[in-house]
Every structure is written in structure tokens, then in C-alpha cells.
């Protein structure tokens, strides 16, 4: 188990309007406002997410439009992110919050697991050589791979009730852990 050291928040704004241009202005304005606030936080990476515009239909007739845009925020600083999310929920909704292991931490842990797996292989190969009274052994084939557990399921939040609130409390979150594993298989030739 490895402590998760990265958190990603997905925020979304959705509006409906009969005028598609006015609708686009509202969505774009809310996301521009959120992006400007988020970019002031140097430790938080800011990315645009999906953007959708779809017709609203009643009996095969278009009666309006709905548009939605996402903003993706990623950082190692959970407390800074939750403070920012609380601010952004003035106009955007928190769609999900997901913890994960950063690539750097994953590689460091996997490297250590590989060292441990190879040391275990060496001990076992020597044990087999001794038990079978062979003079020596050599590596015939070695294969290894790494894998992490299924990524954590993102925490989902209701899309109704967040936007428009005058003050929103910071989300209460815990980073948790993720499982990483390394598998090594080998064949040896005894002499």
C-alpha cells in the first residue's frame, strides 16, 4: 500500500437558455472566472475539461439549449485544493474528487519492489541449486512487470445544490492509499 499523493478535482458548470449565444457567454464567463482564480494557485495544475452544447427538445422541437464545461484541477496540496474548490463552488459544481499515486512516487515504489523481487529470486535460485546439488546456476529467462490497483473510484458529488450557495464549506477528504505490485518470473539453468 502506498499513500496517495495526488488529488484531482473535476468541477463543472451547466446552464440552460433559449439563446445559444447567451448560453455560451454564461458558461464561458463562469469557467473564465474559475480559471483565473485557480491559476493564482501556483501549486495547482489547471486544465480545461469537456465542453458540451446540446439541444433541449420537446416533441421533436428544439425549445432551448443546455451547455456544460468542465475544469480539471490537480495538485499534491489537498488543503489548498479544498479551499479553492469551496471558492469555486460559488459558480461551479464539484463533480468528482479523486486521489491517486503520482508517477514519480509510483516509479520509486516500483523500483524498490523490483529490487526486493530480484533479491528474492536470487535467494530462491541459490536454494534450488543447493538442494539439487548443482555446481552453479545461471539465469535463463527473466520477465517482470508492474501494476497498480484499479484507480480509486472518484468521490461523486450531487450536481444540484452546490452552485449559487453564498458560502460553501471545504470538502472533507482523506487521501487513502493505493496498492502497487511487481511480478517477476524467471527460469534458471543448473550446471
Detail the topology: elements first, then pairings.
Layout: E1 2-3, E2 6-17, H1 20-39, E3 45-58, E4 61-75, H2 78-88, E5 93-100, H3 103-131, E6 137-148, E7 155-156, E8 177-178, E9 180-190
Antiparallel strand pairs: 1-8, 2-4, 2-5, 3-4, 5-7, 6-9
Commentary on this structure:
The protein has three helices and nine strands, in the order ββαββαβαββββ. A hairpin with a 2-residue loop joins β3 (45-58) and β4 (61-75). Residues 149-166 have low confidence and may be disordered. It has 191 residues and is α+β, with helices and mostly antiparallel strands.
**Mean model confidence by pLDDT:** 87
Which range does the strand content fall in?
35-45%
The geometry reads as elongated
Amount of helix: 25-40%
Low-confidence stretches: 149-166
Task: List the total number of helices.
Answer: 3
Could you give the order of the helices and strands? EEHEEHEHEEEE
Q: Which radius of gyration do the C-alpha atoms yield? A: 26 Å
Derived structural class: alpha+beta
**Largest sheet data:** 5 strands, antiparallel
Instruction: Output the strand order for the largest sheet.
Output: 3-4-2-5-7
Number of strands: 9
Amino acid at each position: 500500500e502506498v499513500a496517495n499523493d495526488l488529488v484531482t478535482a473535476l468541477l463543472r458548470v451547466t446552464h440552460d437558455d433559449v439563446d445559444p449565444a447567451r448560453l455560451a457567454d454564461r458558461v464561458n464567463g463562469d469557467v473564465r472566472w474559475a480559471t483565473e482564480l485557480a491559476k493564482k494557485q501556483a501549486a495547482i495544475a489547471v486544465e480545461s475539461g469537456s465542453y458540451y452544447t446540446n439541444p433541449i427538445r420537446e416533441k421533436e422541437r428544439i425549445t432551448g439549449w443546455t451547455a456544460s464545461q468542465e475544469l480539471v484541477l490537480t495538485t499534491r496540496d489537498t488543503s489548498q485544493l479544498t479551499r479553492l474548490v469551496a471558492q469555486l463552488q460559488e459558480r461551479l459544481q464539484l463533480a468528482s474528487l479523486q486521489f491517486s499515486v503520482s508517477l514519480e512516487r509510483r516509479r520509486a515504489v516500483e523500483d524498490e519492489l523490483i529490487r526486493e523481487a530480484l533479491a528474492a529470486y536470487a535467494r530462491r535460485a541459490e536454494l534450488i541449486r543447493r538442494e539439487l546439488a548443482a555446481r552453479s546456476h545461471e539465469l535463463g529467462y527473466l520477465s517482470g512487470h508492474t501494476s497498480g490497483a484499479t484507480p480509486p473510484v472518484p468521490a461523486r458529488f450531487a450536481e444540484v445544490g452546490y452552485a449559487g450557495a453564498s458560502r460553501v464549506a471545504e470538502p472533507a477528504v482523506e487521501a487513502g492509499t493505493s496498492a502497487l505490485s511487481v511480478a517477476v518470473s524467471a527460469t534458471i539453468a543448473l550446471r
